[in-house]
Amino acid sequence: MSERLSVAFFIPEGDSPRMIIDGHVHIWQRNMLPSSLLRAYLEPLLALDGIAFDMTEDREQDWPMSQVNSSTLLDCMKDARVEKAVVLPLDFGMLGETKIGVEQYNDWVFENCRGSEGRLIPFIGVDPSRGEKALQLLDKYAKTCDAKGVKVYPATGYSPDEERIEPFWKRVEDYGLIVVTHGGATWGPLDETFTHPILFKPVLERHLELKVVIAHIGGKFRSETYELAERFPNVYADCAALQGWLPTEAETCRSRLKEAVEKMPGRVIFGSDWPLFDMSYPYTYWARFVSEEPWAADGVKQEVLGGTIARLLRL
């Protein structure tokens, strides 16, 4: 893991600290990711080979962020003054073979989070196109682990509105699980065709109680997120990965945050996509940016930083 920068979290005199809940983080082991996706992650790092990192020994094992567990996450959360975080397993197994299967990965995530004294809230991570296996995993973790939600990634090769995926959404709705879905740009073997938020429109029309969080505000397709939010009150968005504009494009980041809370007030959630941006813009900086930059009134920030997702999770 790269060396993390520790920065004091600024709290204006007389103000009480905000409880920050991160709605979008990940943990994984190298063998839980298919090689095709790992190579896509590696591309920007290969340019630094021999400069910032020595990757001659094992390019796919000894790179920053190749393996991150709950202990590392909790250390970063402590530095950033983040009280709780939603942990989202990533099921990329349909893209290529992984040495550790999806069920073992989910078992590991739930076990890693168990000792966090409630600070880490694990979701299920499973590809709906696994069919009956996906339904079995929903049953397992909803019943035995009291899972609160599920992370899906349509860019692995399916559209949310396909008929073959319908039993999955029905089961999710029956359990009252929150759906977090990727929205926006993809890379490597992932297919951007399926990351348009508007593809959830038929799903939401059929499942009126389904709660869906569009990750990254939908990225370059965020207008579709706003269109869904205008019609469906159970559509939310997280701001994970917006820090990709930082530090050089701070105004873009501020304007995107401001736009989101104006378009869908009370339904925007703080997220980081940790650890994916920790090297370019440390977690502590991002939490402070959202908390202290002048993009919204203090009450709005408090909702984004923790209030909205606390209600959604019934904390």
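The record above closes out task 2.4. Task 2.5 opens with a second protein, given below.
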Amino acid sequence: MLRQGNHPERAGRSMSISYILQSIISGVLLGGIYALLSVGFGLTWGTMKVLNISHAVFAVLGAFVAYWLFVKVGVDPILSLPLLVALLFLVGAVVYKLVIRPVTRAKDVIMASMVATFGVAIVVENVMSYVWRPDPRILKPSYTGTSFFVGEMAISKGPLIGFSMAILAIALLYWFLHHTYTGKAVQATWQNPVGAALVGINPGHVSLVTFGLSIGSAGAAGVAMALIYAFYPSVQSVWTMFVFLVTIVGGVGSVVGTALAGLLIGFIIGVCAAFLPFVWVNVLLFTLLLVILLFKPEGLFGS
């Protein structure tokens, strides 16, 4: 005879709740990484009016560099992160000087930047395909293959570590923007470029720092994504779609808004994945995007 506590209907209900909660947690962890992937994109769009279509390709580049350092040199991805961010910042500065700065003199900066950075994305993607081949890779340090249990829920350490990296990076970026002179100059240029120039802020320097930070944060997000999913050069097109989604939902240029939007989208992914085939998850997400564009084009958390 079954005891009351072991009733099969109750056990099934408990398993269902655990499955839903586990799916939601996994979605939120992924959403935090999407937030980091998007925050730099929103900064360049808001501050410089540059729509950087190549943003996600530098995230993939960061993932490949971290993978190469891990496989060839044995440097843990987390330990290589400061070096990687600095390297991608320098790459961003070079791209700014060679491509972005001339584009900002165009009559229609947004359109010109889209075309120019689309070309950058194609070039970088093909260079990565030549150097590393287009085969899928995944970062697999020993700690990413384990999980810990909360009741009946198994939480994988890979997404949790990636999420922690993302939240820390977003917090550091927020601190930089609000508690340093250069960060405040970035905000001033975004809010009132003419006024910022009148008080002596160099817009060229601010734009270079902004674009470098954007590419550096993309590289960090690429490493976090590589701890969870396989990556390959052309995956940048998939990541780009989510960058647009998170940025528009959160509000262009808002670090806090982007972080909240990433978590919200991750929550939606988790809930939908628990009840629907995964193919419908993207349908619902981009339907949400269309609704937001129609009724609140500045984003849910934008001003």
